[in-house]
Every structure is written in structure tokens, then in C-alpha cells.
Batch of 3 targets.
Target 1
Amino acid sequence: MLKVENITKYYGDFLAVDNLSFEVKEGEIFGLLGVNGAGKTTTFRMIIGLLAPISGKITLNGKPIDYNITDKIGFLTEERSLLTKMTVKEQCIYYGTLKGMKEKDILNKLDNLLKKFKIEEYKDKKIKELSKGNQQKIQFITAIINDPKLLILDEPFSGLDPFNVEMFKNQIKEMAENGSIIIFSSHRMEHVELFCKKLVVLKNGKTVLSGYLKDIKQKYRKKNIEVIGDIDVESIKNIDGVLSVTLNNFTYQIKIKDESIASKVFEIVSKGKNITKFSVDEPSLNEIFIETVGETYDK
């Protein structure tokens, strides 16, 4: 288990992370979210031991994270961190060796991962000769080549098309099923919703939202109603507690203050014609994020 307990970090007088706590168990994928400057990168760096907190502590399976443990950690940074004049093979041997692996084991693992990501032919090509998407694949491979017990993924899908995103997703899920602790950050909220059962949202270094995603959605009162059919839009807009009514691809999206308004909306909708859908849905994580933080993730 990864335990982050009451960590605080200053840069001079600037408070970057303020009394942050969370736990991630083996096999869990945990979301750490926030706009730029919220404290995510500083938190990642403290977890892997590049920075020390001013106060609080971080442990992995009850032990402080130091050089005795870092060989069990993988970190995919948001920024490219590849040595572009190296070949893919040379790059992976370099990173694997830093993690204490033997060259034979590195090459066996590399061959398996290259095959899985359908880029076997790039093994002896230089990094600079690869597309951005394939460079991202190699960066991901270097982060997981040591089968890390703790894996930190900062914007892992950057530069990937939907097909390659799916391959990454499958690999991440497989690693979680095999017991890896995974911390995941992405500006694509649909990916966070797919992966993460637990999350923390940071704003200016402070925790503004935390817990299990299902509980967060239940506590967030605003709901969405989807309706397909011919309805009296103006009458619905006039209901106290209806926040907005929009039409997207023949589907009416009705935002309501809370679930108690749904029956009033249904009363009017039921008088319409050709009604083929009426559903009350939980708000998306993206809606909750914007409401909580006050701005979009990727501002």
C-alpha cells in the first residue's frame, strides 16, 4: 500500500502542497487531478523521492521510499524524457539497467512489450526517427519495463490515437489486476472515470475533493436527464430547479438541481409525443470537476 500522510511542500514562501493525504492499495488505480499548478507534479516528485516534504511522510508497504525501493517504481512523465539519439533498444537497456535489471531480462521484456504495442520493427531505430505517438509508446515501455509495484502515469495518452489509447488502457488494467499500485493523472475525464475508483482533486495545493468516485457522484446533487421525443421545452424550462435544457443530436439534455425535480420534469415529458427515452443520470466527473475547481482541467 502507498500511504501519503499529511505532506506539505513549500518553494520559498509559495505553498505548493498543503497537508495532502491519501492511500492507494495494491491493484487500485487512483486519480490525482487538478489544473496546471495545482500541486500534482510536486506530489509525484515527493512520492518517488526527488523532493522531500517539509512535513508529513510517504511510505510504500510501510517503508520510506528511498533508493532501496525506487527500483520497484515506474514513472511516466508528462514531458518527453527520452534520449533521442539512442535506439529504442539502447534506451530500454539504459532505463532497465538503472532499475537494477539484467540485460537479458531487459531484452526479453522489451521484445514482449514491442510485440504487444505492435512496434517490433522499431527496436533498432533511433528515438528521433519515430512519430510522437510511437515515442510515447517507448516512454511508456521504459516506465513499465521493470514491472513496477508502484506506477505513476502523468498524461499517459498524450499524442495517441484512439487505437493506441486502447492498447495503453489494456496494459494499465492488466498491471492493476496483477497487483500494481497505479496513480493516474489525465485531463481526459472520461479516462479517469473509466480507470479510477478513488481520486483526489487539488486546487492551489489543497484537497478540494476526495474519496470514492461513486460516493462523490452520489453526494453531488445536480443530475442530468436525457429525453428523446417531442416535448414542451418551454414548460420544462419554467420548472423551478431546472437549470438548463439543450438539444444535442436529437437528445434533450436537461440539467436539474437535484433528483427531486425529476418527477416534475417527467410529468411534462409524459404528455409529449414519440418519447423513446427518459433517463436520470449521475453528473459526469468533468461537470463535478468544473463545479468544484471553478475552471476546466486543461486551462
Target 2
Amino acid sequence: MDPLLHDQLINEVLHHTQTDPHKRASGLSDFILGAQDGLVNVLGVVLGIAAATNDVRVVLVAGLATTFAESISMGAVAFTTTLADADLYQSEREREYRHIIETPHLEIKEIRDIYASKGFKGELLDHIVETITANQDVWVAVMMAEEHQLAPVDRKTAFRAAWIVGISAVIGSLVPVVPFLFLSVATSMWMSVIVTALVLFLIGAYKARMTVGKPMRSGLEMMFIGTLSAMAGYLVGVLLKVPTVP
């Protein structure tokens, strides 16, 4: 190999794998789901209870009860949702195998239409259709990806998703509760809102850095949406405020 080409190839490999690597499937979406849900829901609960009772013990009990109930619930939802996605993919895959046996001409036409819409035509289009339809597994895989827009889901990832969502929900849920362990109720309410808003901003910015978008804008969007949602709990607490016993 030409030395210049060899050096260029090395530089491109380093750029591809280190400077600008593809982001492989990770638990980012599961982490954001659990953390954001925990932050917003528990902030709403503690603000509502604090506004209604002004009793730090009641706030802590409600916050911690919501934390663990929320986390278990979110983990269970992540588990069952992943299994449902896996079952959907498997059922549609089996249906496609039946269709290419029972209605092969229609399925061939669908493959042709898919690649014709991508700009292929003439002999090249014929060759693509013949190559894909010559192998049932390839044929079904193409139909699943192109027609149904479905990707395979490993059922084993359900446990991983449940753990990530559950643990991140616990961590996120404890953030609004912590100030009430050390400060007065009135001060804790403000600190809880400020700290939660900051964490939501950081999560939004991190998401943008790991995927697409502007970190500042993504962080502000998540912070605004999350804190605004939590304010609903505060308003309910104010409206249903428990009268002070003389």
C-alpha cells in the first residue's frame, strides 16, 4: 500500500473511532426517562405537601414514599414496554415470513416500490430486487426495516432497562427531598426547586451533547418543562392547604 494512503487511512480510522465515533445503543434514554420522571414527580409531591401542611416530617414521608413507589413502577414499566416491543417485532417478523410464502408477488412489488422510491431503476433495480428476494431471511429483514420501521429488540435488555430506569428514578427522586433533611420547610421549597431545575438543565444539556441539538437550548427546555410541570403540585397544595390548629 502506498505510504501516503496508509497514513491517510490511519488518520481516518482514528477520526472514525475516537474523534467522532458513532454513539452505540446505550441506556441514555432509559436514564433520562427515569431521572426526569423522578425529579419532576417528587418535586411536585413535596412542594404540594409542603404548601399544604408546612410539616417537614409529612413532607419527608410523602417524598420518600413517592420515591420508592415511583422507582419500582417506572422500572416495571420499562421492563414490560421492552418486552412488548420485542413481542411486536417478533409477531410482525413471523407475519412477513407468512406473507412472502402466501403472497410473494405482492411482497416482491413492495420491495421494488421501496427501492424505486430511493431512486433506483432499470437493470440495477431489477438486480437489487432479485438479490433481496433470493434469500427469505434477507427479504424479511429488509421488509421489517424499510416497510415497518422496526428494529430487533433483545428480550434480555428488558432487565437492563428496568434497572437503569429504576435506579435513575431513585436518584432523581431524592434530589428534591434532600433539602428538607437540613433546612426549614420554606427554605427547602426554594432550594428544592432550584436544585431540581439545575439537575434538569444538566440532564438536558448532556442529552444534547450525546445526541444532537444545542446543549444550552436542550437544557433550558428540559428545565422549563420539568419545573413548570412540578408547579402543578405546588398549586394543588396551596389550594388545599390544611388549616393551622390553634
Target 3
Amino acid sequence: MATVTIKNVSKAFGDNVVLKEFNETFQEGEFVTLLGPSGCGKTTMLRIIAGFEKPTSGELYIDDQLVSGGKTFVPPEKRSIGMVFQSYAVWPHMNVFDNVAYPLTIQRVPKAKIKEQVEKVLEIVHLSQYAQRLPNQLSGGQQQRVALARALVAAPKLLLLDEPLSNLDAKLRESMRFEIKDIQKKLGITVVYVTHDQTEAMAMSDRIFLINRGVVQQCGTPEQIYNEPANQFVADFLGKVDFFKGEAANGRIVFPGMNGQSIAYDGPRTGKVEVAIRPENIYFAPDGALEGVLESQYYLGDVDDCRVRVGETLVRVIANGYEYKDLKDGQKVRMNVRSFMVFEDNGLLEQMLKIQT
């Protein structure tokens, strides 16, 4: 296990600054995810940790050793890291055993030790029975597990993963999330994981760092970032959310775009506000505060994804799948709001509210 300490790390390619003053410590045994849209700087940060890029300024430590910064630069092969890339990058002419053994072979580890370590790691990734197969005889998920085993076989202190599941189909991607997390727990290894997939980040992470345009917008547990987003970008990127313009006064928030309908509000703000509501936090209720017309619904089995026209505004409601049979397009419906977030005009989150309206 290893700690990673990042001090004021910035990275620019010419005039293009892709990372700005990243400061953080990743703790031993922690599963950290760098999350954000394409081009936000998350992969650049991972490559700096790996030693494939040098920071323009700042310092990077693995444990207490300075590995990047000033005149110091420790090459990737001396950082005790394992890395798994988006592409499987397995040798097509080598069987599974030889692919996994490759890092030990080039280090001239004794054959008996290689056999012991490869067999151990193949058991961890559930590939023992495929040791003699070639990569073209494996599924995509199995090939990705070969790449993971190869990264783990030399017992690195730190495991780096760069969007390793993006080439897999949806069902396999879901199962691999839990496999990687289980392996990380079993080994107690520190993991830094890069993805643009919010579901992956939520399912796997101890902490998430949400990055936009090279700047960390917020870091915290999945629950903290989802329920207490620091700004509207965070709220919008992580999970489903709709934003509505309102006017706070006299214990209510009135929505001009919803024909002046309103919901209860016991917060301190008055005047214009931006209200963010996650669609799972709106529910149909006969005595609901908001009234509209069900415009469309999409049955997804476990949920019914609905669109309700309220005045000039389309409101998204994610209802229980069992409600699908009782709802008809064009019917009038009433809704209540379980919880919502209030933002000021400058975009900062004022507070999280959890009230029945």
C-alpha cells in the first residue's frame, strides 16, 4: 500500500493549461476516482502519478519519496506501480500465464517464484482455468482481467486504472466494477481510477474527485458529492437533475415557468433562486403541491421515466415501475417534492433541503 501526496501540481501543454494547482493526499488502501468530462485533466493527473508526464509545477510524492518535482524525476518502472489501460494491451501470441508473468520475466525473477505469484494472482482474478488459453480465446472481460492480473503480479504499492471498462458491454462493465472493488478490498491496495462514467465512480469509490477544465470542483464520498454538490456543475454531472428558476418569499418558492405554482421552503433566502430537483425526488401524490399533465412515459422495468408538463415547464419524474400500468399519457397528475437544492444566482449551493411539500 502507498500514499500519494500531490502538492500544487499544474500541467500545461504550451499555452493550454490542463491541470491547475491540484492539492491532495490519497491515503493507504483508499479507492480514489478522478471523474470528469473528456479533456478535463483527469488522465493527465493519472499519467503524472504514473511518471508518463512531468508536472509543469508542483511536487508529487509516493509515500515519503519525491518522484516528480523540481529537478527530481523517478521513472515509471521505479515507482512500484501497476497500471491498467483502456485497451487490454495483452500480447496476442502469449497465453494467459505468460502474459501475466511478463513483468516478472523481464525482471529475471526465478521460475519457481514466477509460477507461484502468477498462480496466486490468476486465482484472485478468477482466471486459473484459463492459464493456457490465448487472448483470442477469451471474452473482453476475461482479457481485461488478464491485464489486471499482469498489473498486480509484481505486488505494486499503487494501482492506476485509466478507463479500463469503457470497451466492455454494459452488462459486463457492471459486473467488472464489483470484481475490481472486491480485488482491491482483498489486497488492501491503493487505487487511483480514472473514468467519465458517474455510475462507476459512485459504485467503486471511497472518494471522488470531480474535475472540470483542470480544476477540482469537489472531492468527497459518493454520498457527499451526490447529496451536497458544491455547485451546479457538480449537481448536473453526478446523477440526473433538472434546474428551475424560482422566487423565494413568504415560506414558498414560486415558479414563474409553472404558472406560478409553488413548493414550501423554510430556508433563509429571498428573491430569485435556482432550484435543482433530482427526478427520483419527485413523486405522484393525489394531494401534491404541483399539478401538470403527463406528456410521456418510458417504461424501463424497474422504473417509469415520466415527463410532466407543468405550465411552460417539462418536469421529469422517475416513478416506481409498478405505477406504469396506472398512468396514461394526457392525464392530469399531482406531484410532491421530497427534497431539493437551492442555488444562488452566482451558482453556489446555498443549502440542502429535505422537506415534504
